[in-house]
Design goal:
Blueprint (H helix, E strand, L loop, with lengths): L14 E9 L5 H9 L11 E7 L1 H7 L15 E2 L5 E2 L6 E7 L2 H15 L3 E10 L22 H5 L11 E10 L1 H5 L3 H8 L17 H4 L2 H4 L3 E2 L2 E4 L4 E9 L3 H10 L13 E3 L3 E5 L2 H8 L1
Antiparallel strand pairs: 1-5, 1-6, 2-5, 3-4, 6-9, 7-10, 7-11, 7-12, 8-10, 9-10
């Protein structure tokens, strides 16, 4: 049985950093994968922080042929809805998610990680994330309501044994900027219609508005995603880092299409939140990382 990277399921962390890298000219896939795989002992955490590493699917596939889920590809083309609403494609080669109980230890670990990868990569993006009222995003609503209990999450999150990439997971990483002024000007009742849930206790509305966020991302329809989203930014410029894990790419891609209005109404939440980035990464099992590091 392949073992997943433990940081995927490490709930309760308050501080986060998301780093994306591009490989430098002349660095081949093997050099990059081995450098990333050697960043930590795959079965431990780094001095009080959790580290999750992911690779552009094509990069990992070049290094470890046959160890990537079937059909998995990078976010190389934007998602464009019928009205022109666009989710940009900003695929990079490597993603690191560092999380911990306080930002000082996350900060120190991130500096070390960037330095360790400097010979073969260039840092492309950096986002500082943080927990907002434990389980809410900056809209004020509870985030991840449909997440399963951690004991059950691996079933929908991890590639099953016997399949290419067993024990790994597909990560969708996006940065969403909120239109705070427009959102906060809405009455709570209208915010609830946009979300499709009540604000205090996250109960689904009945009947469900057709264009609500709940309706356009119905996990019973598209498939289940384990969400580890966090807030980011300042008082005047902020939003959500979407961190979604799934055993396959299809549910993630189908949800983005639905949100953009492909095959139905556009997600009403997209009128108050705008994606700035979008990338898919394969997060290998710690067994495959250990093999790569050696």
């Amino acid at each position: 049985m392949a073992h997943p990277q433990i940081g995927i399921f490490a709930l309760g962390t308050q501080a986060h950093t998301y780093l994306e890298f591009d490989r430098t000219d002349g660095a081949d896939a093997e050099a990059v994968v081995r450098a990333v795989a050697a960043l930590e002992e795959p079965t431990t955490t780094m001095g009080g922080v959790n580290l999750v590493v992911g690779f552009r699917p094509e990069l990992w596939g070049t290094f470890a042929a046959g160890s990537t889920p079937d059909g998995l590809s990078g976010f190389d083309e934007p998602v464009v809805g019928p009205d022109g609403y666009t989710m940009p494609a900003t695929q990079h080669d490597v993603a690191l998610w560092v999380s911990g109980g306080s930002y000082d230890i996350v900060f120190d670990a991130a500096i070390g990680l960037i330095n360790d990868l400097a010979p073969v990569t260039t840092l492309a993006t950096e986002i500082e994330g943080w927990s907002y009222h434990r389980d809410r995003d900056l809209t004020g609503f509870i985030d991840g309501t449909e997440n399963p209990p951690v004991a059950e999450a691996p079933e929908s999150t991890l590639v099953p044994d016997g399949s290419p990439g067993a024990g790994g997971s597909v990560l969708l990483l996006q940065q969403w900027a909120h239109d705070a002024a427009a959102w906060t000007s809405l009455p709570v009742e209208e915010q609830e219609r946009v979300m499709g849930r009540t604000k205090p206790d996250s109960l689904e509305l009945d009947p469900q508005p057709e264009g609500s966020h709940v309706a356009r991302t119905d996990q019973d329809e598209f498939g289940h995603v384990f969400r580890r989203n966090t807030a980011y930014g300042t008082v005047t410029d902020h939003g959500t880092v979407f961190v979604g894990f799934c055993a396959e790419q299809r549910p993630l891609a189908a949800m983005l299409d639905a949100m953009a209005g492909i095959g139905g109404p556009r997600d009403d939440l997209t009128r108050y939140s705008r994606p700035l980035t979008g990338a898919y990464y394969f997060v290998p099992s710690i067994d495959d990382l250990a093999a790569a590091a050696s």
